Batch of 4 targets.
Target 1
Amino acid sequence: MAQKKKNEPKNNSFHTLNYLMKIDQAIRNGEYPNANKLNKMLGTEFSRSTFGRYIRTLQDDYGAPVEFDFKKNGYYYTDNTFFIQQVMLKEGELLTLSTILPLLEQYKNTPLEESYRNLMNKLIEMLPQNITVDSALINNEVHFISDPITKLEKGVFENVLKATKMQKTLEMEYKTAQNTDYEIRRFDPYHMICQKGSWYVLGYSYHAKDIRLYAMPRIRNCKITKDKFKIPKDFKLSDHIDVQMGAWGNSGEKFKVEIEFVKGLKTYVMERTWHKGQTIKENKDGSVYLSFETNQLGQVVAWVMSFTGGAKVLNPPELKQRVADAAREILKNS
């Protein structure tokens, strides 16, 4: 197999667009570029065939009116008002971009929100001042219904993320769901988790002397100490969270969950993947059987209850009991 030349242009979409814009700029500057001229300008080693492919891309994908001038041995635009930015994003790509923007909601109250918005602004700046787009693309036909967003105290996200990366102990004030007062805690952050609109940090709690999941909206006055920590070699993230069901109230034990859904929910249930490695099948009477393994029974309880009687717990007994207890509490408080 032939080895790639040291300065040969990289073959990916970002570098392709970059080279196309360089060629476009050279054409508009009246430099009549060809492979040799561009190699000298960029310090690359374009072959004539590679350069030819870029020219065909300009013609086919961007509609560039590019022709070869034999006297000047280079390419030029027959329409000198053309420039590649006018067609850099196609309508389908603009639609894709418009559907991405609502997803920023899940990063509210974190530095990632500003970073992503800055990225979007840079993309917008690359567009021409005047652009014609089908009105269907800007009528807000796409919506995302997200979970309620929790608020973080300023500096909490940054310090937790930095401490997690540097493996340094945090000192903070923390308030549990049951308490109204904050308590000073020391915590070794192992992993950050975003679950249903809220941020959590999993790690070692010096207060509990065990692995705990802290809700980041309940943290204030978070500071990074000079103390370093090491994550234990036997620590496994999968022992503490389930990326399909969630992360909360985990005993560490894995359970095989078996659920039966009523016939009326057959289509709804069977068209979805509820859990990695799930077993799902239709019963003879039209009901649906679903099973999977998880260490998050607490999250499964809430999920089963969301079907308002359309889901029957077959196993494990612990889950049947917890769902029954939850139903009794609902009736008690109604």
Target 2
Amino acid sequence: MSAASASSKSAQAVRQPNLQSPVVAIIGATGAVGAEMVRCLEKRRFPLSSLRLFASARSAGQRVDYAGQSLVIEELREEALTGIDIALFAAGGAISRRFAPALAAAGTIVIDNSSAFRMQPDVPLVVPEINAHAIDGHRGIIANPNCATVLTITPLWPIHRVNPLQRLIISTYQAASGAGAAAMEELRESTRAYLAGEKYEPKVLPHPYAFNVFSHNTRIDPATGYNEEETKVMQEARKIFAEPSLRISATCIRVPVLRAHCISATFECARPITPAEVREIIAGAPGVKIVDDIENNYFPMPKDASGQDELLVGRIRQDLSDPEGRSISLFIAGDQLLKGAALNAVQIAELVVASAAKAKGQAA
């Protein structure tokens, strides 16, 4: 039995979460994603009654500003996790596996940013612009997808609805933000050392980061040759699209960019499609902005995507290697810490609250 199934069974005898004015907790509040969750909740004026922030013992006692308040970081302990209606997890898979099932069993709705539960069949894996309806089947835990998955498929979904994708080939250019605050600091420090002509031994990532690119730092499956990041993107895209046979291949690379990932994507559709059609479809899609200035050679870049909720899409062109005219190539830039992580999680929480309000209205 999965962790989510076990928690849902136990949850039958416990309190129902208050989703009209919920107590919200962020687990891993001092990390790069957790800090963005705090900012997203404030920026979007999430309708919470109180916000509780949890982190490791070494961060306990620190203060974080939120909506005019100074909130104290609490140490993450089982006995402290009580009275929480919605918990946003941003502390890694090991922490999620340890704490999330028990919280869900106590009646808390868990929105988890790790890979711990994503591929469990009874756990919804949600991108609100794509499959918001999936939250209706949650059993206490809702999974937030991998950052590269979210950034890749959000602009492609509206195209898929009009002219179904048959095949997708992507290469990702992933920033330090995807590996957390420590990797971002390692990029800063290694760059300073490189420019000063000093030696710098990497501590967070396996290879020198300054002025270098390398394969994503996850384990490679010797049977397939794909690393774990690439496998996540392929499997998660199929699950979110509800297209288990969709043909996908991914190559994931770390690049020395502080924040915001980029993706080069080539997709083949069921029928012929033109760049003009793709631009028209994407132009009306939520959460996406076209940056496709051919005359000035100005296209999506991390410097423009950083700090932005919207995903930038450009370099939209016909794939000339496809004589049938069914393939398009494009380029995406998106903030991994926002739409790739924190923002998507907060949007899921908003769906949960809205769904509860709708259900209450129907019952009345």
Target 3
Amino acid sequence: MEWPKELLEIFDDPLLDGVRPKAAAPTANDRMQQKLAEVNDWINKNGREPRPDGDLKEKLMYAAMTKLREKGFDVWI
């Protein structure tokens, strides 16, 4: 959402210091892209795909990877 210039100027008033419009909430697609990047970073860092029998972080990455693949996303190996 684009805020009108006049409204943004009002927020620059010293009396309203620290008051800003709320940022747009991330969409489902944004969250999915972020999770895909996290899984790919994990794979690059560890040199392998996450496994379901690893530590908690690895289990979470495995679950995310599985869900992403079910939705048709390619997870890098």
Target 4
Amino acid sequence: MRAALTLAHRGLGRVAPNPAVGCVLVKGGRVVGRGWTQPGGRPHAETEALDRAGDRARGATAYVSLEPCSHHGRTPPCVEALIAAGVARCAVALGDPDDRVAGRGLARLREAGVGVAEGLLADEAEELNAGFLMRVREGRPLVTLKLATSLDGRIATGTGESRWITGEAARAHGHLLRAIHDAVMVGGGTALADDPRLDVRLPGLEDRAPLRIVLDGGLRLPATHDLAARAGSQPTLLFTRAGLFTRAGHPAERRQALEDKGVEVLEVETDGEDMLLVADVLQALGQRAVTRLLVEGGGRLAASLFQAELVDRLVWFHAPSVIGGDGVAAVGGFGLERLAGMSCFQRRSALPIGADLVETYARAR
């Protein structure tokens, strides 16, 4: 099953809205077939593994990281493919909460006389597909906030200089994070100050093109910005505040210029301080099949996510340096008055990368 989970990991960032699934077929103590969900979500892992196994699948045990689908979509159900291939037993790490499956796949296997075992490495399988599960259960993507700061939590000097706080190895790891997410999001201020490309620039992964998202309540992003100029080759979505284009004197032609470049512009409501409602943004992204969202700044956006308790995972790169209190904080203020209201996390890992340290956290439940 751990091999199936490792195979499933290959699909992260490439298979939404489908889950990333791995399948290993074992017969006589030997692996006779293996597969994982292919880019775009199809073919499914079970179909890939069965195709590789051929006749050797008869009598084999299938180890699948998520309950095989039982509904007819663009492809036939995987449970029927497993049954037709003569698989004798199926070990499943995790049930699929999708209403179209939700236990029906396992029931169909048992009905056909296939032995079923459930729950093997279930916790690891749930973490792997936390984004898919979040979208099914709550209608929004899993949110991972990435911060790259000095030891005292600063992302820039008081003058705004920010390149580079962390080293080259840490920045490469940041590109790897982009590669396993469906979308990358920044605030409008970060987009203007840092001019980020939000693409993946790692050898062998240049074909990864996560959806680029900008939260720009005032529609300040110019059509000459890289995020707009390359929108034709990498999908780009901009959220701005509702009703903006009905206000007198607003340059509505800027929206048209952005759309002419290929940027999609959507309007969402704001809070009392003209900050876009991030919960509405996430729901809109869930409706667009985004399951895994990486947020890369800035401080206001991070604060709004913490305030709304919408940060699910935290990846924090620490450089061995100190900037001081006049530097720019990684997280802006969000009105916390009592320690009981703090956003709390559980540390999952700590890994040295070059001279820097990256820590990963999951939101405490």
